Amino acid sequence: MAKMTKQEILLADREFLFPALFHYFREPLVVTRAKDQWVWDADGNQYLDFFGGILTVSVGHCNEFVNKRVHAQLDTLQHVSTVYVTEPAVALAKRIASITPGGGALSQSMFTNSGTEANETAIMAARCYTGSSDIIALRHSYHGRSNLAAGLTGNHTWRTSGGPQPGVVFAHNAYCYRCPFGLTYPSCDVRCAQDVKELIQTTTPGRVAGFIGEPIQGVGGFITPPKEYFGIVAAIVREHGGVIISDEVQTAWGRTGGGKWFGIEQYGVVPDIMTSAKGLANGSPIGLTVAKPEVAAKFPTPTISTFGGNPVTSTAALAVLNFIEENKLRENTDAMGKHLRAGLEALAEKHPLIGEVRGMGLMQALELVRDRRTKEPAPRECAAVLEATRAQRILVGKGGLYGNTLRITPPLNIEKPDVDEFLARLDRAFVAVPLD
User: Fold this and answer.
1) 161 falls in which pLDDT band (50, 70, 90)?
2) DSSP H/E element including 350
3) Handedness of CA 55, 61, 62, 67 (dihedral sign)
4) Average pLDDT value for residue range 175-197
5) CATH superfamily placement of domain 6-63+328-431
6) Eight-class DSSP state of 278
7) Ordered DSSP codes for 102-155
8) What is the pLDDT of residues 344-355, one digit of tens each?
9) Is 395 helix (H, G, I), strand (E, B) or coil?
10) pTM of the predicted model, to two decimals?
11) Does the structural domain 67-326 have CATH classification 3.40.640.10?
């Protein structure tokens, strides 16, 4: 079969794929190859990738350490499904159990195919374990695109695939930049977290199955709660019979810095269930639900997953964890995250369009506003900056309820020269889009 031209690819995209699949740019970017921190398009342009396929390429594109092991596994055993036991799946589960919060308190895993499926599994586990059905989710959240996962999502843009779900209520998130109570941290006493108690008392039977939250809200625009938030919420939820589910689809595997494997560890909380996906396998499809043994024991039996724990994907995931550990990437994330944050804060001093810099580690965001005093969101300008980043040959993401936040997530093995080059190019992108 002859190789397709760029125009043939774009025409086929419009004709043969669901039109619901959106693209960031006015003219879709056709990507043809990638290596480490670099991506090339169909015209041969080279981009510095600081988004990683939505926080998925955690250790660089086509990582040789990971791919060498994947290739060997492909030639050995590619697929059997969960009705048989394989070494790659159990080896990965054992490794994950050794690094979960609370000294391995969460020790039993269910592997699936995506973050959406992982969250579906977690909700089922919470309901089976507690005997309750009500789930507390957060406003501005994103938990996937299935009917249930969209129903857990607190952002209207991403709820189109799922209407309201029975038994799901939404708490205020810790959006300090736009506090829903009009207060200021820390004098607020973290009112948003304290409000969860009244939410339970007024919108549920008084007992709940659990709470699901992202340690840093990804699609929400990297909204980063204050350090007390999850501890307060966890105490309230457990008082009312529920479990804590930490959605680590975007925040796990050292992404948030501080030497931590998981985002929830930044808040000193040990959850009952965690979910993850994305960066765990560096681009291979994977979903993870890991739970405390007593929670896992209540999951209904029998169950199977045709592709969950696939030998090839499990091999890729274990290689990613080993690569992070052997190359001290959690430490690198801490150092490069601080360097990146300092550079972004310097850009905020220069460009009035930047209202807030937030995030942790190598998970940083810029919220763009038309007026820093009123904090009026700047979605049109954000779209213009995104186009300008393409012209500067850098890739970043976009998010936020108002579509006004840039998301910046380079691979965990990024180095200082690339961070400096990225900051210089991002600066030029902002210069190209002056605030009216």
Assistant:
1) low
2) helix 329-350
3) negative
4) 98
5) Aspartate Aminotransferase, domain 1 (3.90.1150.10)
6) G
7) HHHT--EEEEESSHHHHHHHHHHHHHHHHS---EEEETT----SSHHHHHT---
8) 999 999 999 999
9) strand
10) 0.97
11) yes
